[in-house]
Task: structure prediction
Amino acid sequence: MKKLIHLELDEILPDIFDTIAGKKENPNLNSKKKMLEKFYDGYDQSADGDLAYKKQIISREKDYYLEEVKNSQGIIIHYCEEPLSNHKNRGSAKFKHNN
Result:
């Protein structure tokens, strides 16, 4: 049975931005080591409230780290590509001092 639906929008919808994220895990390893690869590609709100595009790849299997962040004008505001083994003491992985 077919239904005909008539839809009217009285308000203008905001722009819609796609994001995809995923990870590859080995369930046989403990919780800290089971994540083998992780990726994120899409849009998020940056610290200053602007819309930012972020691409991130973390691969323990390939010892690879990539992070690229662009502002809403498409200008790169952060870029880091290096072996994952060299990517330490940054962001949320920073060593925390006990005061």
